[in-house]
Amino acid sequence: QVQIVESGGGLVQPGGSLTLSCTTSRINFNIYTMEWYRQAPGKQRELVALITPKHDTNYTASAKGRFTISRTNAKSASYLQMTSLEPGDTAAYYCAADGPNWHPVRYWGQGTQVTVSS
């Protein structure tokens, strides 16, 4: 059974930093685009950042310059480094593994909560 597990969330003060981790199992990690989403209460889930198997990255406007997505194929893991956190970043953060065109499937994790508050 495919497993996608996020960790690293928590409470942080404005201006602080957190690094989220996403570990995967039972997928051929190297062919998946790894994505980080977030969902704040009462809002739709939004894509924050993604990294392709070739390590190309893309960020939402609010994440550019503050967040860094990375992946380590040897560990089948993806990371989201978040700096200069703001209260508006408060949300549940979800990791997803998005398959290639010939294997159109997206696996989701259960999410990890990030709360930015003083």
Short description:
This protein is mostly beta strands and 118 residues long. The chain has no helices and 11 strands.
Low-confidence stretches: none
Question: Which series of helices and strands comes N to C?
Answer: EEEEEEEEEEE
**What is Rg?**
14 Å
Decide which structural class fits the backbone.
Answer: mainly beta
Structure explained in plain terms:
It is built from no helices and 11 strands. The chain is mostly beta strands and 118 residues long. Strands 2, 4, 5, 6, 9, 10 and 11 form a 7-stranded mixed beta sheet that branches. Strands 1-3-8-7 form a 4-stranded antiparallel beta sheet, with no helix packed on it. The chain is globular and about 45 Å long.
Strand-helix topology:
Blueprint: E1 3-7, E2 10-12, E3 18-25, E4 33-39, E5 46-51, E6 57-59, E7 67-72, E8 77-82, E9 91-98, E10 106-108, E11 112-116
Can you give keywords for this protein?
mainly beta; 118 residues; four-stranded antiparallel beta sheet; 0% helix; seven-stranded mixed beta sheet
